[in-house]
Amino acid sequence: MADVFTQSKRSQVMSRIRSHGNKNTELALAKLFRANDITGWRRHQPVFGKPDFVFPKLRLAVFVDGCFWHSCPQHATKPKNNASFWRKKLTANQLRDKLVTRTLRSTGWSVLRIWEHELAAKNTSQLVARIRKRTNEARRRTNSRTAKTRSAS
Ligand SMILES: [Zn+2]
User: Fold this and answer.
1) Residue 153 CA, ligand 1 centroid: distance in Å
2) CA 117 to ligand 1 center in whole angstroms
3) What separation in Å is there between the alpha carbon of 139 and the centre of ligand 1?
4) What homologous superfamily is domain 20-152 in, according to CATH?
5) Is 0.90 topped by the overall pTM?
6) Ligand 1 centre and the CA of 136: distance in Å?
7) If you average pLDDT over residues 76-95, what whole number do you get?
8) Assign residue 110 a region: left if phi > 0, alpha if psi is -120 to 50, beta otherwise?
């Protein structure tokens, strides 16, 4: 990605993106769920780390990670202007992502992180398969936990 923004413009763009999440990718995923009859998800749930989507019954948290902001291995770019600012910022994002994932897992959640690029039309059938696999796993896990609780009581 070319470093086309001035510092102030970039901060402005960044604050807009950070404060509201990325609506486009979230909406694209919601659309994908609907088109593929994937149900049981909610948005804007008060869950640690503010997942973009939550499947409350499955205790599955879904994040859509922007390729730039979350340093996707395929598309991460390193801006040349203000290089050290960006290095710190992007590293901090990665650390926060890890912390959020780890914290959620330690409290019984499954975490599914989806890259922005997986929402490209050519990748969606693979993405849907991945989502189904994870929701099925989460469902089995939830069922076995419920069964254990029942037999224990
Ligand atoms: Zn990517």
Assistant:
1) 47
2) 5
3) 28
4) VSR Endonuclease (3.40.960.10)
5) no
6) 25
7) 92
8) beta
